[in-house]
């Protein structure tokens, strides 16, 4: 039986289904190097205070480079790729340097760039420069990342790369440059549609080719990798046959109002388009065609239509009948066989205030997302201009904030305070809970949701975002509540607002468990946040510094949380277990200070 998954969302990552996970139980995915700097490990740890130092634990699943004077080989994949999407986690040792080469020729820089305010092409996520020798080495081009989204050394980071190989004619002459379609680092877009005129420095060859291996630089510093996923997208896309259409005119409320009618117009077109109708409203359309699928497997469909519509593919419902606005998109996935697969789209529109639009994209297990509509058919629904807020100086901005984790919405914080800093380190504070609920690096806020159309009062962080538990920091004991709790008694917590200092930075004030608390969060060294709690009359309470599924001590006064996603640095802390969770605590005192490093 074919599997069908429907997702009505704006954030389904197209192409994720086509990925193959690279086994790191051994080195079989890679060519032998004859050197000992590459190994497989079960866990790794990097010391924040020691340059290029990484320790390993026995096991499988992590690829580690530990170079020394005699073992400094680069690592090449055995397979070669053209158009490809690749993503992986990586960990940099402090002050360490490496690089990931597409086709062994185009380097994406991997570097400990923690705290760099204005990143250059050589910083983490940058596209490295090309080089010439005239007669000395000369570097040119290169592309700096939009922001510094690099995390602290010793933390796991995630990079996603979409690459288009150079194109060649039948005679082997290059007719189109290679292109980085996009690079995301820790969830933030660093590059989009960057043409690469030739190999960057240190390639396997200065000659370009349709295919080439991955290469990881192994001659600089300690670095580790895990969760490699690769989608080979060099195949030809599915071909859509000529499309038969029927058009009905009238104010139709549901399909039964027109399905039994004789159509007012019929015909055939080569690309989907709403304008087979002679009017922009009060019409229904039925499009029938086939997709010639080159390779069996899971296919992703994306639709953008105005009005009500439903879609059937291969004799099954792909999308049920639903109303959407011109800018809305719907996504679905379906396993398809190779060969000709029938497609039927039924749409009907009665909202005259809404511009018509019809767009359809499909991505398969071996080809990128491909449009099957005419360009003019989607021009009526361009995205709204974003309303962006920068933090060129310290700024405090009130809004609703929706908290997400792993793509799932956790809750809406209705009394949130977003605090921006020109250092490009920002946070959101929940006034209802006395909690830092998210922190991020990069640009400040997208306030479009507040003002676009009717608005919903929310804003969104624009950088590399880390969501934290929305939980009170001061509690009677470590086991009071969970990661999403609020005080059990209404009288336990009472917010008193916040004061701004001379630099317009807030100090939050509240009463909690009989104590007056001042809660101050400040950026330190352009790298991390320092939180200082001034507690008047502490009475045996506990300060919960972190909650997570996993908390580990990695150095004196330094702890990692949830699989090395961020650090807490604090003196005198204790790791406790509360049910399935771990809690990092210190006893409450008149002054408690700790750092959140990421």
UniProtKB/TrEMBL annotation:
<feature type="signal peptide">
    <location>
        <begin position="1"/>
        <end position="18"/>
    </location>
</feature>
<keyword id="KW-0732">Signal</keyword>
<dbReference type="Pfam" id="PF06439">
    <property type="entry name" value="3keto-disac_hyd"/>
</dbReference>
<protein>
    <submittedName>
        <fullName>DUF1080 domain-containing protein</fullName>
    </submittedName>
</protein>
<dbReference type="InterPro" id="IPR010496">
    <property type="entry name" value="AL/BT2_dom"/>
</dbReference>
<feature type="domain" description="3-keto-alpha-glucoside-1,2-lyase/3-keto-2-hydroxy-glucal hydratase">
    <location>
        <begin position="26"/>
        <end position="230"/>
    </location>
</feature>
């Amino acid at each position: 039986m074919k599997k069908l998954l429907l997702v009505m969302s704006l954030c389904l990552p197209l192409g994720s289904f086509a990925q193959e996970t690279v086994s790191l139980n051994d080195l079989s995915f890679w060519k032998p190097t004859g050197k000992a700097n590459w190994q497989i490990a079960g866990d790794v740890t990097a010391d924040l205070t020691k340059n290029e130092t990484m320790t390993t634990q026995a096991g499988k699943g992590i690829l580690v480079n530990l170079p020394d004077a005699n073992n400094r080989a680069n690592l090449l994949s055995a397979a070669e790729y053209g158009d490809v999407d690749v993503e992986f986690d990586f960990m940099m040792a402090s002050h360490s340097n490496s690089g990931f080469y597409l086709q062994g020729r185009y380097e994406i820089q991997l570097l400990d760039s923690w705290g760099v305010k204005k990143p250059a092409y050589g910083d983490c996520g940058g596209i490295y420069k090309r080089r010439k020798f005239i007669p000395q080495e000369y570097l040119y081009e290169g592309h700096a990342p939009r922001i510094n989204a690099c995390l602290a050394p010793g933390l796991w980071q995630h990079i996603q790369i979409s690459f288009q190989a150079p194109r060649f004619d039948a005679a082997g002459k290059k007719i189109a440059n290679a292109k980085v379609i996009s690079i995301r680092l820790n969830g933030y877009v660093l590059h989009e549609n960057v043409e690469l005129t030739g190999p960057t420095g240190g390639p396997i060859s200065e000659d370009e080719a349709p295919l080439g291996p991955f290469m990881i630089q192994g001659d600089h510093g300690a670095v580790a990798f895990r969760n490699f996923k690769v989608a080979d997208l060099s195949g030809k896309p599915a071909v859509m046959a000529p499309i038969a259409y029927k058009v009905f005119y009238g104010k139709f409320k549901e399909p039964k109002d027109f399905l039994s009618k004789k159509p007012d117009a019929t015909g055939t077109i080569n690309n989907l388009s709403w304008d087979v109708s002679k009017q922009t409203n009060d019409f229904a359309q039925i499009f029938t065609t086939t997709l010639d699928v080159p390779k069996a497997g899971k296919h992703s469909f994306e639709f953008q239509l105005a009005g009500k519509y439903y879609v059937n593919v291969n004799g099954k419902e792909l999308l049920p009948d639903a109303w959407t606005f011109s800018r809305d998109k719907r996504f679905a996935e379906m396993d398809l066989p190779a060969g000709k697969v029938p497609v039927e789209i039924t749409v009907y529109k009665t909202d005259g205030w809404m511009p018509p639009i019809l767009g359809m994209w499909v991505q398969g297990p071996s080809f990128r997302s491909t449009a099957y509509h005419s360009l003019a058919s989607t021009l009526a629904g361009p995205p709204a201009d974003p309303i962006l807020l920068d933090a060129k100086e310290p700024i405090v901005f009130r809004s609703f904030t929706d908290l997400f984790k792993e793509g799932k919405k956790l809750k809406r914080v209705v009394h949130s305070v977003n605090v921006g800093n020109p250092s490009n380190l920002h946070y959101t504070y929940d006034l209802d809970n006395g909690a830092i609920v998210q922190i991020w690096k990069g640009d400040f806020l997208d306030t479009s949701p507040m003002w676009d159309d009717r608005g919903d009062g929310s804003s969104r962080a624009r950088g590399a975002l880390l969501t934290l538990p929305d939980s009170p920091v001061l509690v009677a004991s470590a086991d009071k509540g969970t990661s999403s709790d609020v005080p059990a008694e209404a009288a336990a917590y009472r917010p008193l607002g916040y004061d701004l200092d001379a630099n317009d930075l807030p100090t939050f004030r509240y009463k909690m468990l009989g104590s007056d608390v001042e809660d101050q969060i400040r950026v330190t060294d352009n790298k991390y946040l320092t939180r200082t709690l001034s507690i008047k009359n502490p009475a045996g309470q506990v300060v919960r510094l972190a909650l997570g599924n996993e908390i580990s001590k990695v150095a004196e006064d330094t702890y990692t949380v949830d699989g090395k996603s961020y650090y807490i640095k604090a003196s005198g802390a204790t790791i406790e277990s509360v049910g399935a969770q771990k809690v990092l605590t210190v006893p409450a005192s008149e002054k408690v200070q700790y750092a959140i490093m990421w």
